[in-house]
Amino acid sequence: MTVVGPFGLSVQDQALEADVQIGIAGVEQALAEATKSDVPFITVTAQHLKEAGGKRFRPLLVLLAAQFGDPNAPGVIPSAVVVELTHLATLYHDDVMDEAAMRRGAPSANARWDNSVAILTGDFLFSRASRILADLGPEAVRLQAGAFERLVTGQIQETAGPLPGEDPVQHYLDVLSGKTGSLIAVSCHFGALMAGADEWVADVLTQYGERIGIAFQLADDILDVASDSHESGKTPGTDLREGVPTLPVLLLRASEPDPRLAGDLRLRELIAAGFPADGQDSDARHAEALALLRAHPALAEAREATLRYAEEARALLTPLPDCSAKSALEGLCDAVALRTM
């Protein structure tokens, strides 16, 4: 049996499928409990994004990593809840920073209520994650603290931008490593740790998690430019319109202008001018820039970089024993390739 799960993950083993489904159901139940408060309004705000959906990618990785030990160990589900609560909390804060109006197809918390409510709700979720984490032992607390520090550092680096003389492309990859890779890496580490897997196995899975996390984020960069079907969950070209410097644009800026390359100079001109909502012919200029970027070598270069991270993730899995969980993790590397086509 093949089950297509988050990000196109294929599970071709009925026992693993059953374990994952039971585990995800347990995570959902625990998330519902963890987002309840004695104050009814806080319950509503805390469950707002949880009820809007989500792929539960991080809990899935906890569950798959736990397969290399005892997947039924008591700390597996709670640790999966910790990483998902942490992820959800960061979304509340991100939407305030980005002044986002929508999240997962629903009004963002800051749009539905206000910035203060959104920020405090994120803080509430962090506190609930910490309460659960405290019962998982000092090693789990240390790991989560390290991941959270890296996550916040990445967010600050993104906000501050590259330093004078710093390579903007490398700065961007460093930001993704902190903002995205850190929490996905600790998801894999938690699964292995709570399941009692060997330390070297936990180390391999942690490194895998960081790289596959970056690969999926970079794939989103590709989709924002190349997709016509809203695969990224956003209208194609959203980042381009909002002036968010994703990898294709950064690689374009890093390359030398080439008058011989069709549309190269025009594309640079359009991106430099931006696409203000009240600008004349903004939609037409945005559509032109998107079409030019799709045909530019910078997009192909970004795709190659994305696949490189996915292949590095796959190679890291080589020493692990062959099993259905390993095949599923390798399948995530294949999913990156499919998302960038």
Automatic annotation (TrEMBL):
Q: In the record, which residues are listed under signal peptide?
A: none
| Annotated Gene3D superfamilies | Farnesyl Diphosphate Synthase
Q: Which UniProt keywords apply?
A: Magnesium, Metal-binding, Transferase
GO MF, one annotated term: transferase activity
The record's InterPro entries line, in alphabetical order, gives:
Isoprenoid_synthase_dom_sf, Polyprenyl_synt, Polyprenyl_synt_CS
Q: Which cofactor does it need?
A: Mg(2+)
User: What EC number is given for this enzyme?
Assistant: 2.5.1.-
Q: Does the entry feature the keyword Transferase, yes or no?
A: yes
- The superkingdom of the source organism is Bacteria
| Pfam families for this protein | polyprenyl_synt
UniProt record similarity statement:
Belongs to the FPP/GGPP synthase family.
Identification of the protein by name: Polyprenyl synthetase family protein
The record lists the organism as: Streptacidiphilus alkalitolerans
